[in-house]
Amino acid sequence: MSVNSQSRRQFLQTSTAAAAGSVMPYWFSSRPTLAQEAAKSPNERPVVGCIGTGSRWHAVGRHALNFADCVAVCDVDALHLDEARDIVKREQSKKGRDVAVAMYEDYRELLDRGDLDIVTIVTPDHWHSKIAIDAMRAGLDVYCEKPLTLTINEGKQIISVLNETQRVFQVGTQQRTEMGQRFLQAIAMIRDGRIGDVQKVTCDIGGAPTSGEIPVVDVPRGLNWDMWLGQAPMVDFRFKEGGRWGNSRCHYEFRWWYEYSGGKMTDWGAHHVDIAQWAIEQNGDGQGPVSVEPVSVEHPVPFENGYPTQPDQYNTATKFEVKVMFENGVEMRIVSNSSDGNGILFEGTKGRFHVSRGRMRGGPVEELESNPLPDGAVAEVYGGRKPTSHMENFIECVKTRSQPISDVWSHHRAMTTCHLSNIAMRLGRTLNWDPESEQIVGDSDAQQWQGREQRKGYEIDVPV
């Protein structure tokens, strides 16, 4: 181990001891920001490897470079890989850090390096769980984009390994931090009783697109299609021109195939359902839905026994309404379209209001002008002061060995609601759920959908 690596790891250990004696929440401090500290002291910068360097990485990866030194990038697409290496070298050079950047097609080779502290995982959804589990078992802390899982069982497996390894793990639901100041205020209003007892929550998460027939074409040069598919079944590569990214089974458009994602239900549900369950206090152990009913659903292709029958078109639900009942009596509606638009509508015994990334509106919001929330009410949502950013919170927690603001346990509870909704829509029937045992009740066929078949060579070796 190099002198710099020893110093860096010593710093991380020292920070852990210092944090143990602090009474302030882990993401708050009056000292200079982490970015300012890291700029002054190179040995205080964790070493990061970036796994997955496509479109979303351009935000996540670049932000990580403010706090960590990147020594390795990994992607199964050679074009993404070359571009990421050049970006990292250029950005680190601007900061006077000319660090060698290795490139890998296979993430396992990156994990075997032995000189990393953290990884960012910004791959398609169906790869998140296996890579995250392998990274934790390699002794690394993890920042992984949402949605963290493709199935309910994957959430249980990640939590099992997280408990076993005691790593720091941040889920990329940035709506809890830099995107989320209005959402924090919404939760504070609910906790202050501004709408009385919450009775109903509507999450408008938008619908998915259709593609029409997508032809089989040759796999693009430089793309390892077998590894891109990973646990998913081996199928032909498909692509046609259209839209921003083209229509395909790959890269950005993976979101609209159940084999790799969950459509809008997991893409935006990971944000709005997460905030909603946080607000109604249904994101902890033993909490969650008790029933999930598919009120209406439209898929772009025919389904048989829950599976799409055509391989040549996007197959996730385009329009839907799902009714979710929680054990505390609150009703949640997850919809693809509402009169209020994208966002969350909270309705209680004393009023209602709507919150989105762009605005808040409703009588209780207007009343804030004459009757503001108590001092510290918004901060109390986090148990203290406002955090700076999602990535900075993660790096701070790496140093203090504390739990990040977007933790795996609460994310798993929100994703369970989303996964159950997708299962109910695909099977076309209401599901009953036991949030304590985390099992579908009274439907043995539906229980099989809590996991998925894993292609040989890409299995996750963790008991459920």
UniProtKB/TrEMBL annotation:
<feature type="domain" description="Gfo/Idh/MocA-like oxidoreductase bacterial type C-terminal">
    <location>
        <begin position="214"/>
        <end position="458"/>
    </location>
</feature>
<feature type="domain" description="Gfo/Idh/MocA-like oxidoreductase N-terminal">
    <location>
        <begin position="47"/>
        <end position="172"/>
    </location>
</feature>
<dbReference type="InterPro" id="IPR006311">
    <property type="entry name" value="TAT_signal"/>
</dbReference>
<keyword id="KW-0560">Oxidoreductase</keyword>
<dbReference type="InterPro" id="IPR050463">
    <property type="entry name" value="Gfo/Idh/MocA_oxidrdct_glycsds"/>
</dbReference>
<dbReference type="InterPro" id="IPR000683">
    <property type="entry name" value="Gfo/Idh/MocA-like_OxRdtase_N"/>
</dbReference>
<dbReference type="InterPro" id="IPR036291">
    <property type="entry name" value="NAD(P)-bd_dom_sf"/>
</dbReference>
<dbReference type="Pfam" id="PF19051">
    <property type="entry name" value="GFO_IDH_MocA_C2"/>
</dbReference>
<dbReference type="GO" id="GO:0050112">
    <property type="term" value="F:inositol 2-dehydrogenase (NAD+) activity"/>
</dbReference>
<dbReference type="Pfam" id="PF01408">
    <property type="entry name" value="GFO_IDH_MocA"/>
</dbReference>
<dbReference type="InterPro" id="IPR043906">
    <property type="entry name" value="Gfo/Idh/MocA_OxRdtase_bact_C"/>
</dbReference>
<protein>
    <submittedName>
        <fullName>Inositol 2-dehydrogenase</fullName>
        <ecNumber>1.1.1.18</ecNumber>
    </submittedName>
</protein>
<dbReference type="GO" id="GO:0000166">
    <property type="term" value="F:nucleotide binding"/>
</dbReference>
